[in-house]
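Hi F.,

I've been meaning to write this up properly since the lab meeting, where we talked about keeping a consistent format for the predictions we share between groups. The idea is simple: the sequence comes first, exactly as it goes in, then the structure tokens exactly as they come out, then a line or two of notes. No screenshots and no reformatting. I'm using this chain as the first example so we have something concrete to point to.
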Amino acid sequence: MVINPTYLAQRTRQSVNWSDAKRRVVRSYREWIRAAPEIQTMYSLNIPVAQLRTKMRQEFERHRYVNQIGVVDMLLFQSHAEFQETLNYWKQLPHILKYFRADEDPNARRAKDFMHGFLEGRN
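Output, unedited:
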């Protein structure tokens, strides 16, 4: 497999107005949804494609009510960076599964600070 670091690379840009930002968000969302079967195959996930798509939608819905265009642009940049890292196989399986940890284990939570995590054995 040849590594091509510019595969899926895009220029960083700012949205001109809200309609442009909305168009870019929908485009990013569609890219993620269409890539779900490929992600499942690449990472040999035992998770159905429908569940992958549901988690992708939840991640987009989490930021639904952002009302600053600069924040939307930053979130789009982060989304595309995650997308590029995922499809270029620059992530490992635990990086993908961290999104599903709360679904599998309802008691899974992050420690509120380092010392509590250390004392719980989550170092």
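Notes:
The chain has a mean pLDDT of 87.
The two ends are 35 Å apart (CA to CA).

If this format works for you, I'll send the rest the same way.

G.
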